[in-house]
Amino acid sequence: MEEGSLRSSLKVRSLDREDLRDPASVHRQLCALCQKVAWRARKRGVRARTVTLKLRYFDFETLTRSRTIPSTSADSELLPVPLDLFRRARRRPAPVRLLGVALSNLVLDDRQLHLFGDDSRRWESVDNVRARYGYGAIGLAGSLRSRRASTRWRAHMHGNAC
After folding, report:
1. Distance CA 150, CA 161 (A)
2. Strands 96-108 and 10-13
3. Is 144 helix (H, G, I), strand (E, B) or coil?
4. What are the beta bridge partners of residue 56?
5. Taking a C-beta distance cutoff of 8 angstroms, is the pair 76, 119 a contact?
6. Is the pTM value of this prediction over 0.85?
7. For the CA atoms of the chain, what is the radius of gyration?
8. pLDDT for 44 beyond 60
9. For the domain 7-108+130-157, what is the CATH superfamily, name and number?
């Protein structure tokens, strides 16, 4: 890896056509964003020490909050950070237009092996499934819509009412 590439960041943002209005939708979106950005970090062979949340309301007021953490590229270690940043940053109940998660302060993933095991094999397996079957083939349960919401969405897309 080139020295200059470590100074960059990895970013993902939501592309929903509708504003997010309920906490479950925000949680689901942040979960999906964390999975995506963590996957990109592992593909590049880096871990992040800083997590940044971008929150844009429907009226385009935008807030950005960051936190420095022990370096990681694990979905499950990253997810609590933007969830907490969102909880602390949200000051009004207005609909959310955009969410973004960025990883920065990147370091090469050259960790020493853990004596009692670590999660790197699990995430490597997840990445292998994604490489073979596509990104959406596997993920954290928190990023999934409920069966009822999914049924309503499919019906809406096909012109049927639930």
Report:
1. 13
2. antiparallel
3. coil
4. 62, 98
5. yes
6. no
7. 17
8. yes
9. DNA polymerase, Y-family, little finger domain (3.30.1490.100)
Structure tokens at 76: 């499950």
Q: How many residues does the chain have?
A: 162
Tokens found for residue 162? 């639930």
Nearest CA among 155, 71, 75, 135 for reference residue 105: 71
Provide the residue type at 64 as one letter.
T
Domain ranges of the chain: 7-108+130-157
pLDDT in the model for residue 3: 39
Structure tokens at 119: 């999660």
CA distance 97 to 15: 9
Rounded Cα distance between 48 and 69, Å, is: 8
Whether residue 150 is predicted with pLDDT greater than 90 in this model: the reply is no
pLDDT at 47: 94
Copy the structure tokens of residue 85. Answer: 């940043």
Q: Is-contact 120 76, C-beta < 8 A?
A: no
